[in-house]
């Protein structure tokens, strides 16, 4: 099974900073880009 790129980047970011709390917006900006605007509440 192959992990999609966005899921890999998200997992990598969370594992690289295990003691840091990220906001939803920080994750959206860092992984999906600054132009991402969505109404969804899930990452």
Characterise the protein shown here.
The chain has 43 residues and is mainly α. It has one domain. Helices cover 49% and strands 0% of the residues. The protein contains two helices and no strands. It has helices at residues 5-16, 24-32. The longest helix has 12 residues, at 5-16. It is globular and about 25 Å long. The model has no long low-confidence stretch (mean pLDDT 88).
Helix and strand layout, with pairings?
Elements: H1 5-16, H2 24-32
Which value, in Å, is the CA radius of gyration? 11 Å
Low-confidence runs (pLDDT<50, min 5 residues)?
none
Beta strands, count? 0
End-to-end Cα distance = 21 Å
Query: Roughly what fraction of the amino acids lie in strands?
Result: under 5%
Q: What is the 3D shape?
A: globular
Q: Structural class of the secondary structure composition?
A: mainly alpha
Tell me the major beta sheet.
Answer: none
N to C succession of SSEs: HH
At a glance:
The protein has 43 residues and is an all-alpha fold. The protein contains two helices and no strands. Helix content is 49%, strand content 0%.
Which terms would index this structure?
43 residues, mainly alpha, 0% strand, globular
């Amino acid at each position: 099974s192959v992990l999609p790129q966005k899921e890999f980047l998200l997992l990598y970011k969370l594992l690289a900073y295990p003691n840091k709390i990220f906001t939803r917006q920080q994750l959206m900006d860092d992984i999906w880009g600054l132009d991402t605007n969505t109404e969804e509440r899930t990452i």
